[in-house]
TrEMBL record:
The keyword Repeat applies. Pfam families: SLH. Residues 584-646, 647-703, 704-765 form the SLH domain. It comes from the Bacteria. It comes from Intestinimonas butyriciproducens. The keyword Transmembrane helix does not apply. Gene3D superfamilies: 1.10.1370.30. Residues 1-25 form the signal peptide. SUPFAM superfamilies: Metalloproteases ('zincins'), catalytic domain. This is Oligoendopeptidase F. Keywords: Repeat, Signal.
Amino acid sequence: MFRFRRLAALVLTGALLSGLGTVQAAEPALLPESAALSSGDSWPLPVDFDSLSYDTEHVQDFLSDCEDFQALLDSSASITTISTACMALYVDYLSLYTEYSVCSVHYYRDPASYEADYLAFTFLFTRAGQAYQDAVHGMFRSDSFTDAYAAADGDLEELEELLDDYLDESITDEQLDLMDQESALVAGYWNALTAEYTATLPGSDRTWTREETESDPDLSDEDYWTLLSALAQARNAAAGPYLLELSSLRREIARSSGYDSVLDYYYETYYGRDYGREESEALFSYVKEHIVPVYSAYAAYYAAVCAGEEALNRYDGQGQAGKLAAVGPVIGQIASELGELFDYMVESNLCDIERSDTKLDVGFTISLPSYRSAFLFDSPQGGYYDISTLIHEFGHFSAYCAAPSVNFSYDTAETHSQGLEALSLRYADQLFGEAGDAFRGADLYALLHAVVDGCLYGEFQVEFFDMEDPTLQDVNRLFRTLAQEYGYVYATDSDEAYDWVEVNHTFESPFYYISYATSALSALDLFLTSQDDYQGAVDTYLNLIRLSDESGYRETMARAGFPDVFQEETVSGVGGELSGYLYTDLYGLYDLEDHWALPEIGALVSAGLIGGTGDGFQPSVPVSRAALCTILYRAEGQPQPDAESSFSDVAADAWYADAASWAAESGITTGTGGGFSPDVPLTRESLALLLYRYAGEPSHSGGLSSFSDADTVSPWASQAVAWAVEQGILLGSDGRLNPTGGASRAEAAVMLFRFFSQAAGEAAA
């Protein structure tokens, strides 16, 4: 738990007192930009992971050493002897922690072979942590220590407060038993999650696994979604009940530590957060308003550009060596110190990103504290994601090796990883060639996904622990309701969602997921900063690692120069700037930067209805009949016309040929004198007429008498213009409609946006 991670500071205090020096808390200072991460002691020691092993007998030895230390406290030993022995115990505890990490890596590589070892070590390591805590607690409570502390001008009241904060609540036998039950339930969840499930279709005896469903080209869309839903429901039915049991158990654990709120217990004791429920709920609200729409826009870009980009799969045929060889130079270009750490990781066998059928489907980095080092683990999925994950996890690895303390908050830790992802996007072309922009879009989409999912699962867990005796169906309904608030759309009509059980953090680390949201927002802010000042962004990131100590996330980020993500202006600013980057940089519509119509144009671009001209968007260029009819044709789903165009001025291979034929068949346009006049600019009234016909010439009660130039509206367009004014599609300026004035591409986009928004509102009603 979090308080165990704070013992090092207390032990070091005791070591200083062995020389009877004055103990003072040192505040980390901002280092010069040129200072290396490797300055001081924050640099890893040589190690070869392949030579490391673990032995549960060492836990028993450590427990005996703790008993010997307690006996030493009861003797007349000097403070120097006691503090020296305590430091030795601390070093042994780090060694035990390292062995536990080694055992954990083996377990995640092959859970079937190492589950018994892992559970046994977890059981014993929990008790070792408690024994170690009791030993340190006893030292600081001993008369010899308090006398020496006072003699060294130490503040006894300050010491008492420190002890109250971190050491007074010893774990009871009851709590240890509850934790053992928790570990067993989590192991049961993993077994349920990783089991193979099958499903059948109505009227069929054949069964499908998930892999078979994903790879069967003969399945209809309806059958595909039916099978996926059935498979998800089967997994949910097996794994979901473990959360219900864990909920009751964790309430008991919280109460046994004096907490009425499970959220407060985990936020404070496990994660050491310097924010609480109020700030979290405010963030959930800000993200729904300012980030979810941007996330949806990036999702559209991902579907249109990234999902089918074969070049993003260029590393699929390469194993660990190939991926490391590709990413290593990028890390070194970001910062030479990071490059040194990457080489150290590779040379020391401190990573495993090879594909294996026995691995659990997770990625993580785990500390090896005896060596001020870490181990990077991933079960590769294929595609660009393997590269992103390697960079992400190396951000964790770097912080474990180079930060002044490993006791940084979880939110800060996730900023280490996601921040490095953000900085790596400068080198996307180096990693993926011509698909560089696709990789940038995919990774930014993933970071936005982390924000949205972090808040979704964060709010889900807040609401879940507020529920009284929920059923699994209640939990499924809760998640679906919240998911829809965060913009997710389901392909089935059920009021339940089943796939939430696949997020293991909900079972293993309750309330953790919000850390992905806070940190991803900080990382996205870092990315936006890097667009104008890349070296400044790198310096901010390296400074974050240098300053990553025991302080809370908000305090650490403020000292490193990041804005506060719990302020609405920060969240809205990130959303707005990312929206602009999507259209001006990724879509290449460079001439829309700061354009007044960007929100409306962007929505149509994301919907696939409108695009650029090959030279930006050209918002001031008049919109043509061909362009407008093509937009409406796309909105209709691009149905195949019954016949080729009869217009004399439409070539069969013209880019707008099908749209022109469809528009004529649908009665939207009759052309001009036997021709389509594709390049003729549309006036405001002719644009209104095309929309009016597309809408089915609906009845209306609108009038034009309030406009001073109403008499200039052409008779053939009067009904359409009156309807467009009534619907808020066509607006005047200074009391004038200017019906015969030209409509630019930007103005047309705004009118189309208003039209489609109005239609969507009517459909929803």
